[in-house]
Predict the 3D structure of the following.
Amino acid sequence: MKLMRSATRRKRELVIETALQLFIDKGYENVSVDDIIQSTGTSKGTFYHYFSSKEDLLREAGGRQLETVRQWAETPPSRVQSLEGHVNRLFLDLASAIGPNRKLIRSFVTLSLQDNTLFTGRKDPFRTLYESLQVWLPDPRKAELLVTAYLGTVLIWCAQEEADLVSMVRNNLSLVWSGLRSHPEPPLLETSYTKEETKMKVAVIGGGLAGLTAAAYLSESADIEGVLLERSPHLGGRAFTYEKNGFTLNYGAHAIYGLDRHKLTEMGNELGLSFSSKQVDKRKVMYSKNGQLTPAPLDFVNLIRTDLLSTMQKVRFVGEITAIIAQIHQLKNYETLGDYIAHSQADEDVKELWEHLVCSNFFISPEDARKVPGPVISEYYHNLFLSQRPVNYVLGSWAVITNQLRGKIETTGRWEIGLQEAVEEVRYADRKFILRTKHRELEFDKVIFAMPVQQVIKLLRGTAWEPFLAPYENNTPTEVMVYDVGLKEVVARPFNYISDMDNKMFISDVSATDHTLVPEGGQLLQGIAYLSDTFDSEEERKAYLDRKTEQMEGLFDRYYPGWRDAISVKRVSKKAMVASVKNISRNELLPTRVENVPFYFCGDGCTGKGELAERAFSSARTVAKLILDKK
Protein backbone atom coordinates (compact mmCIF):
# COMPACT_ATOMS: atom_id res chain seq x y z
CA MET A 1 0.00 0.00 0.00
CA LYS A 2 1.37 3.41 -0.98
CA LEU A 3 2.03 5.58 2.04
CA MET A 4 0.40 9.02 2.18
CA ARG A 5 2.77 11.95 2.57
CA SER A 6 2.48 13.87 5.85
CA ALA A 7 1.36 17.07 4.12
CA THR A 8 -1.29 15.22 2.16
CA ARG A 9 -2.44 13.44 5.31
CA ARG A 10 -2.77 16.75 7.15
CA LYS A 11 -4.89 18.22 4.32
CA ARG A 12 -7.14 15.20 4.34
CA GLU A 13 -7.51 15.29 8.13
CA LEU A 14 -8.37 19.00 7.93
CA VAL A 15 -11.21 18.26 5.50
CA ILE A 16 -12.48 15.43 7.70
CA GLU A 17 -12.38 17.42 10.95
CA THR A 18 -13.99 20.49 9.33
CA ALA A 19 -16.72 18.44 7.68
CA LEU A 20 -17.53 16.53 10.83
CA GLN A 21 -17.73 19.76 12.82
CA LEU A 22 -20.09 21.23 10.21
CA PHE A 23 -22.21 18.07 10.43
CA ILE A 24 -22.29 18.43 14.21
CA ASP A 25 -23.22 22.11 14.13
CA LYS A 26 -25.72 22.17 11.25
CA GLY A 27 -26.69 18.56 10.69
CA TYR A 28 -25.43 16.32 7.89
CA GLU A 29 -28.38 17.04 5.61
CA ASN A 30 -27.80 20.79 5.82
CA VAL A 31 -24.15 20.72 4.77
CA SER A 32 -23.12 20.57 1.10
CA VAL A 33 -19.80 19.71 -0.50
CA ASP A 34 -19.45 23.39 -1.43
CA ASP A 35 -19.85 24.32 2.25
CA ILE A 36 -17.00 21.99 3.14
CA ILE A 37 -14.79 23.32 0.34
CA GLN A 38 -15.44 26.91 1.36
CA SER A 39 -14.74 26.22 5.05
CA THR A 40 -11.48 24.41 4.35
CA GLY A 41 -10.22 26.75 1.62
CA THR A 42 -9.63 23.83 -0.75
CA SER A 43 -10.73 23.28 -4.32
CA LYS A 44 -13.41 20.94 -5.57
CA GLY A 45 -10.70 18.91 -7.34
CA THR A 46 -8.82 18.50 -4.07
CA PHE A 47 -11.99 17.39 -2.28
CA TYR A 48 -12.82 14.74 -4.85
CA HIS A 49 -9.22 13.59 -4.89
CA TYR A 50 -9.63 12.54 -1.27
CA PHE A 51 -13.32 11.59 -1.19
CA SER A 52 -15.79 10.25 -3.73
CA SER A 53 -18.81 11.77 -1.97
CA LYS A 54 -20.07 13.48 1.16
CA GLU A 55 -21.02 10.03 2.47
CA ASP A 56 -17.31 9.15 2.64
CA LEU A 57 -16.90 11.80 5.32
CA LEU A 58 -19.80 10.43 7.30
CA ARG A 59 -18.13 7.02 7.25
CA GLU A 60 -15.25 8.59 9.15
CA ALA A 61 -17.56 8.90 12.17
CA GLY A 62 -17.88 5.12 12.10
CA GLY A 63 -14.13 4.85 11.66
CA ARG A 64 -13.51 6.70 14.93
CA GLN A 65 -15.73 4.20 16.73
CA LEU A 66 -13.89 1.34 14.99
CA GLU A 67 -10.59 2.57 16.41
CA THR A 68 -12.06 2.55 19.93
CA VAL A 69 -13.27 -1.03 19.43
CA ARG A 70 -9.91 -2.09 17.99
CA GLN A 71 -7.95 -0.73 20.95
CA TRP A 72 -10.37 -2.38 23.36
CA ALA A 73 -10.15 -5.75 21.61
CA GLU A 74 -6.35 -5.67 21.77
CA THR A 75 -6.28 -5.21 25.54
CA PRO A 76 -4.13 -8.08 26.88
CA PRO A 77 -6.05 -10.46 29.20
CA SER A 78 -3.49 -9.83 31.95
CA ARG A 79 -4.82 -6.26 32.28
CA VAL A 80 -8.47 -7.27 32.53
CA GLN A 81 -9.73 -7.88 36.05
CA SER A 82 -13.37 -8.54 35.14
CA LEU A 83 -15.07 -9.55 31.90
CA GLU A 84 -18.22 -7.63 32.82
CA GLY A 85 -16.26 -4.49 33.67
CA HIS A 86 -14.18 -4.83 30.50
CA VAL A 87 -17.31 -5.01 28.31
CA ASN A 88 -18.95 -2.12 30.14
CA ARG A 89 -15.83 0.02 29.62
CA LEU A 90 -16.11 -0.45 25.85
CA PHE A 91 -19.73 0.65 25.61
CA LEU A 92 -19.23 3.60 27.96
CA ASP A 93 -16.18 4.76 25.98
CA LEU A 94 -18.16 4.53 22.74
CA ALA A 95 -21.02 6.48 24.29
CA SER A 96 -18.68 9.15 25.70
CA ALA A 97 -17.11 9.66 22.27
CA ILE A 98 -20.39 10.27 20.43
CA GLY A 99 -22.37 11.87 23.28
CA PRO A 100 -21.59 15.49 22.31
CA ASN A 101 -22.43 14.87 18.63
CA ARG A 102 -26.14 14.04 18.60
CA LYS A 103 -26.88 15.63 15.19
CA LEU A 104 -23.98 13.86 13.53
CA ILE A 105 -24.85 10.46 15.00
CA ARG A 106 -28.52 10.93 14.13
CA SER A 107 -27.53 11.47 10.49
CA PHE A 108 -25.05 8.59 10.60
CA VAL A 109 -27.62 6.13 12.01
CA THR A 110 -30.33 7.29 9.64
CA LEU A 111 -28.15 6.97 6.55
CA SER A 112 -26.73 3.59 7.59
CA LEU A 113 -30.28 2.24 8.00
CA GLN A 114 -31.40 3.65 4.67
CA ASP A 115 -28.33 2.78 2.60
CA ASN A 116 -26.97 -0.74 2.99
CA THR A 117 -24.01 0.13 0.74
CA LEU A 118 -22.67 2.68 3.20
CA PHE A 119 -19.99 0.27 4.40
CA THR A 120 -19.40 -1.58 1.13
CA GLY A 121 -15.71 -2.35 0.89
CA ARG A 122 -15.14 -1.07 4.43
CA LYS A 123 -15.49 -2.47 7.91
CA ASP A 124 -19.02 -2.24 9.25
CA PRO A 125 -18.60 -0.79 12.79
CA PHE A 126 -21.70 -2.62 14.04
CA ARG A 127 -20.44 -5.97 12.76
CA THR A 128 -16.95 -5.28 14.07
CA LEU A 129 -18.38 -4.49 17.51
CA TYR A 130 -20.28 -7.79 17.53
CA GLU A 131 -17.28 -9.84 16.36
CA SER A 132 -14.96 -8.20 18.90
CA LEU A 133 -17.33 -9.00 21.75
CA GLN A 134 -17.50 -12.64 20.67
CA VAL A 135 -13.79 -13.02 21.34
CA TRP A 136 -14.45 -12.40 25.03
CA LEU A 137 -17.99 -13.74 25.53
CA PRO A 138 -18.61 -17.52 25.60
CA ASP A 139 -22.14 -17.23 24.18
CA PRO A 140 -22.65 -15.34 20.88
CA ARG A 141 -26.25 -14.60 21.92
CA LYS A 142 -24.91 -12.45 24.73
CA ALA A 143 -22.78 -10.48 22.30
CA GLU A 144 -25.81 -9.94 20.09
CA LEU A 145 -27.96 -8.90 23.07
CA LEU A 146 -25.40 -6.37 24.30
CA VAL A 147 -24.91 -4.85 20.83
CA THR A 148 -28.68 -4.68 20.35
CA ALA A 149 -29.12 -2.99 23.73
CA TYR A 150 -26.40 -0.44 22.91
CA LEU A 151 -27.70 0.37 19.42
CA GLY A 152 -31.27 0.59 20.72
CA THR A 153 -30.13 3.02 23.39
CA VAL A 154 -28.36 5.15 20.76
CA LEU A 155 -31.50 5.22 18.61
CA ILE A 156 -33.67 6.38 21.53
CA TRP A 157 -31.05 8.95 22.53
CA CYS A 158 -30.98 10.35 18.99
CA ALA A 159 -34.70 11.16 19.28
CA GLN A 160 -34.42 12.82 22.72
CA GLU A 161 -32.86 16.27 22.81
CA GLU A 162 -31.97 16.42 26.51
CA ALA A 163 -31.04 12.80 27.32
CA ASP A 164 -27.51 11.91 28.43
CA LEU A 165 -26.22 8.95 26.41
CA VAL A 166 -23.62 7.76 28.90
CA SER A 167 -26.18 7.60 31.72
CA MET A 168 -28.66 5.80 29.47
CA VAL A 169 -26.04 3.22 28.41
CA ARG A 170 -24.91 2.69 32.01
CA ASN A 171 -28.48 2.10 33.23
CA ASN A 172 -29.38 -0.23 30.37
CA LEU A 173 -26.17 -2.25 30.73
CA SER A 174 -27.00 -2.75 34.39
CA LEU A 175 -30.39 -4.19 33.43
CA VAL A 176 -28.93 -6.42 30.73
CA TRP A 177 -26.27 -7.90 33.03
CA SER A 178 -28.86 -8.46 35.73
CA GLY A 179 -30.96 -10.43 33.27
CA LEU A 180 -27.98 -12.42 32.00
CA ARG A 181 -27.11 -13.48 35.54
CA SER A 182 -30.58 -14.52 36.64
CA HIS A 183 -32.74 -15.37 33.63
CA PRO A 184 -33.07 -19.13 32.88
CA GLU A 185 -32.02 -20.58 29.55
CA PRO A 186 -34.67 -19.69 26.96
CA PRO A 187 -36.59 -22.52 25.31
CA LEU A 188 -35.01 -24.01 22.21
CA LEU A 189 -36.27 -22.55 18.95
CA GLU A 190 -36.27 -25.11 16.17
CA THR A 191 -36.13 -24.14 12.52
CA SER A 192 -37.14 -26.54 9.79
CA TYR A 193 -35.05 -26.44 6.64
CA THR A 194 -35.96 -27.58 3.18
CA LYS A 195 -33.21 -30.06 2.50
CA GLU A 196 -31.61 -30.49 -0.87
CA GLU A 197 -31.02 -33.86 -2.41
CA THR A 198 -27.76 -35.36 -1.19
CA LYS A 199 -25.81 -38.51 -1.90
CA MET A 200 -25.27 -39.56 1.68
CA LYS A 201 -27.13 -39.22 4.98
CA VAL A 202 -25.11 -39.49 8.21
CA ALA A 203 -26.19 -39.84 11.83
CA VAL A 204 -23.96 -38.64 14.65
CA ILE A 205 -25.04 -40.04 18.01
CA GLY A 206 -23.70 -37.83 20.78
CA GLY A 207 -23.36 -34.05 20.98
CA GLY A 208 -20.12 -33.74 22.93
CA LEU A 209 -16.86 -32.36 21.58
CA ALA A 210 -16.34 -35.42 19.36
CA GLY A 211 -19.86 -35.43 17.90
CA LEU A 212 -19.83 -31.70 17.23
CA THR A 213 -16.39 -31.94 15.59
CA ALA A 214 -17.35 -34.84 13.30
CA ALA A 215 -20.60 -33.14 12.27
CA ALA A 216 -18.84 -29.80 11.67
CA TYR A 217 -16.36 -31.39 9.28
CA LEU A 218 -19.09 -33.33 7.44
CA SER A 219 -21.33 -30.26 7.20
CA GLU A 220 -18.79 -28.69 4.85
CA SER A 221 -19.68 -31.21 2.15
CA ALA A 222 -22.68 -30.34 -0.03
CA ASP A 223 -23.06 -34.07 -0.77
CA ILE A 224 -23.80 -34.96 2.86
CA GLU A 225 -26.78 -34.20 5.06
CA GLY A 226 -27.26 -35.47 8.56
CA VAL A 227 -28.70 -35.41 12.04
CA LEU A 228 -26.82 -34.99 15.30
CA LEU A 229 -28.73 -36.69 18.12
CA GLU A 230 -28.04 -35.77 21.75
CA ARG A 231 -29.98 -37.30 24.62
CA SER A 232 -29.44 -34.38 27.03
CA PRO A 233 -30.98 -30.89 26.71
CA HIS A 234 -27.65 -29.29 25.85
CA LEU A 235 -24.61 -29.82 23.64
CA GLY A 236 -21.00 -30.17 24.73
CA GLY A 237 -21.16 -33.34 26.82
CA ARG A 238 -18.56 -33.03 29.57
CA ALA A 239 -17.53 -29.74 27.94
CA PHE A 240 -20.95 -28.29 28.78
CA THR A 241 -20.85 -24.80 30.29
CA TYR A 242 -23.47 -23.08 32.39
CA GLU A 243 -23.68 -19.82 34.31
CA LYS A 244 -24.85 -18.98 37.80
CA ASN A 245 -24.64 -15.67 39.65
CA GLY A 246 -22.33 -14.33 36.96
CA PHE A 247 -19.89 -17.27 37.18
CA THR A 248 -19.27 -19.55 34.20
CA LEU A 249 -18.82 -23.16 35.31
CA ASN A 250 -17.42 -25.96 33.16
CA TYR A 251 -18.33 -29.59 33.76
CA GLY A 252 -14.98 -30.46 32.22
CA ALA A 253 -11.83 -28.40 32.77
CA HIS A 254 -11.21 -26.21 29.71
CA ALA A 255 -7.44 -26.38 30.01
CA ILE A 256 -5.61 -27.32 26.81
CA TYR A 257 -2.24 -29.08 27.11
CA GLY A 258 0.35 -28.21 24.46
CA LEU A 259 -1.95 -25.88 22.52
CA ASP A 260 0.57 -25.09 19.77
CA ARG A 261 0.92 -28.84 19.09
CA HIS A 262 -2.73 -29.66 19.87
CA LYS A 263 -5.22 -31.02 17.36
CA LEU A 264 -7.50 -28.10 18.24
CA THR A 265 -5.04 -25.70 16.58
CA GLU A 266 -5.16 -27.72 13.37
CA MET A 267 -8.95 -27.90 13.57
CA GLY A 268 -9.16 -24.17 14.10
CA ASN A 269 -7.37 -23.58 10.81
CA GLU A 270 -9.42 -26.16 8.90
CA LEU A 271 -12.84 -25.19 10.27
CA GLY A 272 -12.22 -21.46 10.65
CA LEU A 273 -12.63 -21.46 14.44
CA SER A 274 -11.78 -18.28 16.33
CA PHE A 275 -10.84 -18.32 20.00
CA SER A 276 -8.42 -16.71 22.41
CA SER A 277 -6.42 -18.41 25.12
CA LYS A 278 -4.08 -17.54 27.94
CA GLN A 279 -1.20 -19.55 29.29
CA VAL A 280 -1.03 -20.51 32.94
CA ASP A 281 1.83 -18.61 34.59
CA LYS A 282 4.43 -21.33 35.21
CA ARG A 283 6.08 -19.19 37.90
CA LYS A 284 2.86 -19.40 39.93
CA VAL A 285 2.46 -23.19 39.81
CA MET A 286 3.41 -24.79 43.13
CA TYR A 287 3.71 -28.28 44.59
CA SER A 288 3.09 -29.07 48.25
CA LYS A 289 4.98 -32.00 49.78
CA ASN A 290 5.13 -32.81 53.48
CA GLY A 291 3.46 -29.46 54.13
CA GLN A 292 6.21 -27.51 52.33
CA LEU A 293 5.65 -25.42 49.20
CA THR A 294 8.04 -25.44 46.26
CA PRO A 295 7.89 -24.41 42.58
CA ALA A 296 6.68 -27.13 40.20
CA PRO A 297 9.53 -28.25 37.91
CA LEU A 298 7.73 -27.34 34.67
CA ASP A 299 10.70 -25.73 32.92
CA PHE A 300 14.40 -25.16 33.45
CA VAL A 301 13.92 -22.09 35.68
CA ASN A 302 11.46 -23.83 38.01
CA LEU A 303 13.54 -27.01 37.97
CA ILE A 304 16.48 -25.04 39.35
CA ARG A 305 14.28 -23.42 42.01
CA THR A 306 12.35 -26.50 43.15
CA ASP A 307 13.18 -28.29 46.41
CA LEU A 308 11.66 -31.58 45.23
CA LEU A 309 14.98 -32.81 43.85
CA SER A 310 18.62 -32.53 44.83
CA THR A 311 21.15 -31.06 42.42
CA MET A 312 22.16 -34.47 41.07
CA GLN A 313 18.52 -35.55 40.81
CA LYS A 314 17.80 -32.39 38.78
CA VAL A 315 20.60 -33.31 36.41
CA ARG A 316 19.12 -36.80 36.10
CA PHE A 317 15.63 -35.42 35.45
CA VAL A 318 16.91 -32.99 32.79
CA GLY A 319 18.51 -35.99 31.12
CA GLU A 320 15.21 -37.86 31.20
CA ILE A 321 13.36 -34.91 29.67
CA THR A 322 15.99 -34.65 26.94
CA ALA A 323 15.64 -38.35 26.20
CA ILE A 324 11.85 -38.03 26.00
CA ILE A 325 12.15 -35.14 23.55
CA ALA A 326 14.61 -37.13 21.44
CA GLN A 327 12.28 -40.18 21.66
CA ILE A 328 15.10 -42.37 22.93
CA HIS A 329 13.88 -42.66 26.53
CA GLN A 330 13.63 -46.29 27.68
CA LEU A 331 10.18 -45.65 29.13
CA LYS A 332 8.63 -46.30 25.70
CA ASN A 333 9.98 -49.86 25.79
CA TYR A 334 8.23 -50.76 29.04
CA GLU A 335 4.69 -52.06 29.23
CA THR A 336 3.74 -49.65 32.03
CA LEU A 337 5.15 -46.83 34.13
CA GLY A 338 5.24 -49.27 37.06
CA ASP A 339 7.50 -51.62 35.11
CA TYR A 340 9.83 -48.76 34.21
CA ILE A 341 9.98 -47.52 37.83
CA ALA A 342 10.74 -51.03 39.06
CA HIS A 343 13.74 -51.35 36.69
CA SER A 344 14.93 -47.72 36.73
CA GLN A 345 18.13 -46.84 38.53
CA ALA A 346 16.82 -43.35 39.30
CA ASP A 347 16.45 -42.08 42.87
CA GLU A 348 13.09 -42.48 44.59
CA ASP A 349 12.37 -38.73 44.38
CA VAL A 350 12.73 -38.82 40.57
CA LYS A 351 10.46 -41.87 40.38
CA GLU A 352 7.91 -40.14 42.59
CA LEU A 353 8.00 -37.05 40.39
CA TRP A 354 7.30 -39.14 37.29
CA GLU A 355 4.39 -40.79 39.07
CA HIS A 356 2.98 -37.45 40.18
CA LEU A 357 3.29 -35.94 36.69
CA VAL A 358 1.31 -38.84 35.23
CA CYS A 359 -1.30 -38.47 37.98
CA SER A 360 -1.65 -34.77 37.13
CA ASN A 361 -1.85 -35.04 33.35
CA PHE A 362 -3.95 -38.20 33.19
CA PHE A 363 -6.13 -37.28 36.22
CA ILE A 364 -5.64 -40.64 37.91
CA SER A 365 -4.53 -42.04 41.25
CA PRO A 366 -0.94 -43.24 41.87
CA GLU A 367 -1.89 -46.91 41.61
CA ASP A 368 -3.44 -46.25 38.21
CA ALA A 369 -0.55 -44.01 37.13
CA ARG A 370 1.73 -47.03 37.45
CA LYS A 371 -0.57 -48.90 35.01
CA VAL A 372 -0.39 -46.33 32.19
CA PRO A 373 1.46 -47.86 29.19
CA GLY A 374 5.04 -46.66 28.77
CA PRO A 375 4.61 -45.82 25.04
CA VAL A 376 1.55 -43.68 25.87
CA ILE A 377 3.48 -41.67 28.48
CA SER A 378 6.53 -41.33 26.25
CA GLU A 379 4.52 -39.99 23.30
CA TYR A 380 2.44 -37.67 25.49
CA TYR A 381 5.44 -36.01 27.17
CA HIS A 382 7.44 -35.90 23.96
CA ASN A 383 4.65 -33.70 22.62
CA LEU A 384 4.23 -31.67 25.82
CA PHE A 385 7.94 -31.00 26.45
CA LEU A 386 8.30 -29.68 22.89
CA SER A 387 5.35 -27.33 23.31
CA GLN A 388 5.91 -23.60 23.69
CA ARG A 389 2.45 -23.31 25.30
CA PRO A 390 2.17 -26.26 27.70
CA VAL A 391 -0.99 -25.30 29.64
CA ASN A 392 -3.57 -22.82 28.33
CA TYR A 393 -7.18 -21.96 29.09
CA VAL A 394 -9.61 -21.21 26.27
CA LEU A 395 -10.87 -17.76 27.28
CA GLY A 396 -14.61 -17.92 27.77
CA SER A 397 -14.68 -21.70 28.39
CA TRP A 398 -15.55 -24.59 26.07
CA ALA A 399 -18.70 -22.73 24.96
CA VAL A 400 -16.51 -20.56 22.70
CA ILE A 401 -15.61 -23.72 20.75
CA THR A 402 -18.91 -25.61 20.99
CA ASN A 403 -20.98 -22.59 19.93
CA GLN A 404 -18.88 -22.15 16.80
CA LEU A 405 -19.10 -25.86 15.93
CA ARG A 406 -22.86 -25.78 16.43
CA GLY A 407 -23.19 -22.65 14.32
CA LYS A 408 -21.17 -24.22 11.53
CA ILE A 409 -23.43 -27.29 11.55
CA GLU A 410 -26.71 -25.39 11.61
CA THR A 411 -25.96 -22.67 9.06
CA THR A 412 -25.55 -25.14 6.20
CA GLY A 413 -29.26 -26.01 6.25
CA ARG A 414 -28.32 -29.62 5.53
CA TRP A 415 -28.01 -30.74 9.15
CA GLU A 416 -30.46 -31.02 12.02
CA ILE A 417 -29.61 -31.08 15.71
CA GLY A 418 -31.98 -33.14 17.86
CA LEU A 419 -31.64 -32.34 21.55
CA GLN A 420 -33.21 -34.57 24.21
CA GLU A 421 -33.52 -37.26 21.57
CA ALA A 422 -31.94 -40.47 22.79
CA VAL A 423 -31.44 -43.32 20.33
CA GLU A 424 -33.22 -46.41 21.66
CA GLU A 425 -32.50 -48.92 18.89
CA VAL A 426 -30.19 -49.38 15.91
CA ARG A 427 -30.96 -51.93 13.20
CA TYR A 428 -30.15 -52.59 9.54
CA ALA A 429 -32.81 -53.09 6.84
CA ASP A 430 -33.09 -52.42 3.10
CA ARG A 431 -29.46 -51.28 2.93
CA LYS A 432 -30.09 -48.54 5.50
CA PHE A 433 -29.30 -48.10 9.17
CA ILE A 434 -32.50 -47.32 11.04
CA LEU A 435 -32.32 -45.36 14.28
CA ARG A 436 -35.36 -45.33 16.52
CA THR A 437 -35.90 -42.61 19.09
CA LYS A 438 -38.90 -42.08 21.33
CA HIS A 439 -40.83 -40.13 18.70
CA ARG A 440 -39.51 -41.19 15.28
CA GLU A 441 -37.47 -43.53 13.10
CA LEU A 442 -34.74 -42.23 10.81
CA GLU A 443 -32.78 -43.88 7.99
CA PHE A 444 -29.07 -43.29 7.37
CA ASP A 445 -26.25 -44.45 5.14
CA LYS A 446 -23.56 -43.99 7.81
CA VAL A 447 -23.66 -43.90 11.61
CA ILE A 448 -21.05 -42.34 13.91
CA PHE A 449 -21.09 -43.20 17.61
CA ALA A 450 -19.67 -40.18 19.46
CA MET A 451 -20.50 -41.39 22.94
CA PRO A 452 -18.80 -43.33 25.75
CA VAL A 453 -18.01 -46.91 24.77
CA GLN A 454 -20.07 -48.15 27.72
CA GLN A 455 -23.18 -46.52 26.19
CA VAL A 456 -22.34 -47.88 22.74
CA ILE A 457 -22.17 -51.44 24.05
CA LYS A 458 -25.45 -51.00 25.91
CA LEU A 459 -27.22 -49.68 22.79
CA LEU A 460 -25.89 -52.49 20.57
CA ARG A 461 -26.55 -55.28 23.06
CA GLY A 462 -28.47 -58.12 21.48
CA THR A 463 -27.49 -57.14 17.93
CA ALA A 464 -25.21 -59.02 15.56
CA TRP A 465 -22.49 -56.46 16.25
CA GLU A 466 -22.31 -57.01 20.02
CA PRO A 467 -19.71 -59.84 20.01
CA PHE A 468 -17.18 -57.69 18.15
CA LEU A 469 -17.32 -55.05 20.88
CA ALA A 470 -16.75 -57.53 23.70
CA PRO A 471 -13.03 -56.62 24.12
CA TYR A 472 -14.06 -53.12 25.17
CA GLU A 473 -16.98 -54.03 27.44
CA ASN A 474 -15.08 -53.85 30.72
CA ASN A 475 -13.33 -50.54 30.07
CA THR A 476 -13.44 -48.26 33.12
CA PRO A 477 -13.70 -44.46 33.04
CA THR A 478 -11.46 -41.84 34.64
CA GLU A 479 -13.36 -40.27 37.53
CA VAL A 480 -12.35 -37.48 39.88
CA MET A 481 -13.83 -35.37 42.62
CA VAL A 482 -14.50 -31.81 41.44
CA TYR A 483 -15.00 -29.05 44.01
CA ASP A 484 -15.87 -25.69 42.39
CA VAL A 485 -16.37 -22.50 44.40
CA GLY A 486 -17.21 -19.09 42.98
CA LEU A 487 -16.28 -16.36 45.44
CA LYS A 488 -17.78 -12.88 45.47
CA GLU A 489 -14.32 -11.44 46.09
CA VAL A 490 -10.69 -12.46 45.69
CA VAL A 491 -9.85 -13.91 49.10
CA ALA A 492 -6.23 -14.79 48.24
CA ARG A 493 -4.06 -15.23 45.16
CA PRO A 494 -0.72 -16.63 46.35
CA PHE A 495 -0.37 -18.72 43.18
CA ASN A 496 -2.43 -19.94 40.23
CA TYR A 497 -2.17 -23.67 40.92
CA ILE A 498 -1.28 -25.72 43.98
CA SER A 499 -0.77 -29.49 43.76
CA ASP A 500 -0.88 -31.50 46.97
CA MET A 501 1.53 -34.38 46.32
CA ASP A 502 0.71 -36.05 49.62
CA ASN A 503 -3.04 -36.37 49.04
CA LYS A 504 -3.03 -36.35 45.20
CA MET A 505 -5.27 -33.37 44.59
CA PHE A 506 -4.91 -29.83 43.34
CA ILE A 507 -6.63 -26.44 43.37
CA SER A 508 -6.54 -24.21 40.33
CA ASP A 509 -7.35 -20.50 40.55
CA VAL A 510 -9.14 -20.65 37.20
CA SER A 511 -10.07 -16.96 37.19
CA ALA A 512 -6.42 -15.96 37.55
CA THR A 513 -5.90 -17.28 34.03
CA ASP A 514 -9.38 -16.97 32.52
CA HIS A 515 -10.86 -13.71 33.81
CA THR A 516 -13.96 -14.10 31.58
CA LEU A 517 -15.52 -16.65 33.94
CA VAL A 518 -16.29 -14.38 36.89
CA PRO A 519 -18.27 -11.22 37.61
CA GLU A 520 -16.37 -8.10 38.51
CA GLY A 521 -14.20 -8.66 41.57
CA GLY A 522 -14.97 -12.38 41.78
CA GLN A 523 -12.74 -15.45 42.01
CA LEU A 524 -13.32 -18.99 40.71
CA LEU A 525 -11.42 -21.86 42.32
CA GLN A 526 -11.58 -25.46 41.13
CA GLY A 527 -10.32 -28.31 43.25
CA ILE A 528 -9.80 -31.78 41.75
CA ALA A 529 -8.88 -34.98 43.59
CA TYR A 530 -7.68 -38.12 41.81
CA LEU A 531 -9.74 -41.11 42.92
CA SER A 532 -9.14 -44.79 43.49
CA ASP A 533 -11.90 -47.10 42.25
CA THR A 534 -11.25 -50.37 44.10
CA PHE A 535 -13.33 -50.85 47.25
CA ASP A 536 -14.60 -53.90 49.10
CA SER A 537 -17.96 -52.33 49.91
CA GLU A 538 -20.17 -49.32 49.24
CA GLU A 539 -19.61 -48.13 52.81
CA GLU A 540 -15.85 -48.14 52.26
CA ARG A 541 -16.27 -46.12 49.06
CA LYS A 542 -18.48 -43.52 50.77
CA ALA A 543 -16.05 -43.16 53.67
CA TYR A 544 -13.20 -42.70 51.19
CA LEU A 545 -15.07 -39.95 49.31
CA ASP A 546 -15.96 -38.20 52.58
CA ARG A 547 -12.28 -38.27 53.54
CA LYS A 548 -11.30 -36.80 50.16
CA THR A 549 -13.85 -34.04 50.64
CA GLU A 550 -12.37 -33.17 54.03
CA GLN A 551 -8.85 -33.15 52.57
CA MET A 552 -9.97 -30.85 49.76
CA GLU A 553 -11.66 -28.41 52.11
CA GLY A 554 -8.54 -28.48 54.29
CA LEU A 555 -6.47 -27.51 51.24
CA PHE A 556 -8.84 -24.59 50.61
CA ASP A 557 -8.60 -23.56 54.27
CA ARG A 558 -4.80 -23.61 54.21
CA TYR A 559 -4.21 -21.50 51.11
CA TYR A 560 -7.46 -19.53 50.65
CA PRO A 561 -8.47 -18.43 54.16
CA GLY A 562 -11.90 -16.83 54.30
CA TRP A 563 -13.19 -18.72 51.26
CA ARG A 564 -16.14 -20.20 53.17
CA ASP A 565 -17.54 -16.73 53.98
CA ALA A 566 -17.13 -15.47 50.40
CA ILE A 567 -18.96 -18.30 48.59
CA SER A 568 -21.42 -17.16 45.92
CA VAL A 569 -21.58 -20.43 43.97
CA LYS A 570 -20.60 -23.92 45.09
CA ARG A 571 -20.68 -27.21 43.19
CA VAL A 572 -19.27 -30.51 44.40
CA SER A 573 -19.22 -33.61 42.19
CA LYS A 574 -17.85 -36.51 44.16
CA LYS A 575 -17.51 -38.71 41.06
CA ALA A 576 -17.18 -36.70 37.85
CA MET A 577 -16.12 -38.44 34.63
CA VAL A 578 -13.02 -36.92 33.03
CA ALA A 579 -12.58 -39.54 30.30
CA SER A 580 -14.86 -42.40 29.32
CA VAL A 581 -11.92 -44.82 29.16
CA LYS A 582 -9.00 -44.68 31.57
CA ASN A 583 -5.84 -45.10 29.50
CA ILE A 584 -4.29 -47.89 31.56
CA SER A 585 -3.03 -51.35 30.62
CA ARG A 586 -6.17 -53.30 31.53
CA ASN A 587 -8.34 -51.08 29.30
CA GLU A 588 -8.30 -51.02 25.51
CA LEU A 589 -9.20 -47.85 23.64
CA LEU A 590 -11.95 -48.34 21.07
CA PRO A 591 -10.67 -48.03 17.46
CA THR A 592 -12.42 -45.60 15.13
CA ARG A 593 -13.29 -48.67 13.00
CA VAL A 594 -13.88 -52.15 14.43
CA GLU A 595 -13.56 -55.18 12.17
CA ASN A 596 -16.97 -56.58 11.06
CA VAL A 597 -18.79 -53.58 12.56
CA PRO A 598 -20.12 -51.07 9.97
CA PHE A 599 -20.10 -48.05 12.26
CA TYR A 600 -17.59 -45.30 13.05
CA PHE A 601 -16.49 -44.46 16.60
CA CYS A 602 -14.99 -41.30 18.09
CA GLY A 603 -14.56 -39.70 21.51
CA ASP A 604 -12.07 -39.52 24.35
CA GLY A 605 -12.41 -43.31 24.80
CA CYS A 606 -11.27 -44.00 21.24
CA THR A 607 -7.85 -44.22 19.63
CA GLY A 608 -6.43 -40.86 18.62
CA LYS A 609 -3.77 -38.27 19.33
CA GLY A 610 -3.21 -37.06 22.87
CA GLU A 611 -5.43 -37.41 25.91
CA LEU A 612 -8.83 -36.14 27.11
CA ALA A 613 -10.31 -33.48 24.79
CA GLU A 614 -7.53 -33.84 22.21
CA ARG A 615 -8.38 -37.52 21.71
CA ALA A 616 -12.03 -36.57 21.23
CA PHE A 617 -11.07 -33.96 18.61
CA SER A 618 -8.53 -36.13 16.81
CA SER A 619 -10.67 -39.28 16.62
CA ALA A 620 -13.66 -37.26 15.37
CA ARG A 621 -11.55 -35.60 12.70
CA THR A 622 -10.23 -39.01 11.60
CA VAL A 623 -13.76 -40.43 11.31
CA ALA A 624 -15.04 -37.44 9.34
CA LYS A 625 -12.09 -37.65 6.93
CA LEU A 626 -12.76 -41.38 6.38
CA ILE A 627 -16.37 -40.69 5.44
CA LEU A 628 -15.51 -37.69 3.27
CA ASP A 629 -12.93 -39.76 1.38
CA LYS A 630 -15.55 -42.44 0.63
CA LYS A 631 -18.49 -40.25 -0.34
